[in-house]
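Service request form, structural biology core

Requester: graduate student, group of Dr. S.
Request type: structure prediction, single chain
Budget code: on file
Notes: please return the result as structure tokens.

Sequence provided:
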Amino acid sequence: MKFLRFVPLLGAILLPGAAFAQYPIIFNHIKTTNLTQEECVDNAGAAMKRAGFTKNFEFIGSGAFAVRGRYSATIRCVAERRIVFFAVAGPDNQTASDLVEELQNTF
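Core staff response, request fulfilled:
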């Protein structure tokens, strides 16, 4: 029962940390394209790699996904609508914004 006197102390130490828990920031952009679906998906993969998103890289049904440090990104192509979606998620607002812009510019 001696351990019970430490419960309030643990709460005082652990709970404030929960208040500072950081949710991922997600930024996205849209760009028009005249590429076919296949060309768009291929270009999505190349753009990811040019922007340094190489960890866990994979082509997904309509685009590509990869990780760069603490940031994950996806590029999704909808060629029939002439649209490409770019999204980056991570812990820092400005960095996520800069990275999604970099992806869009390298596409």
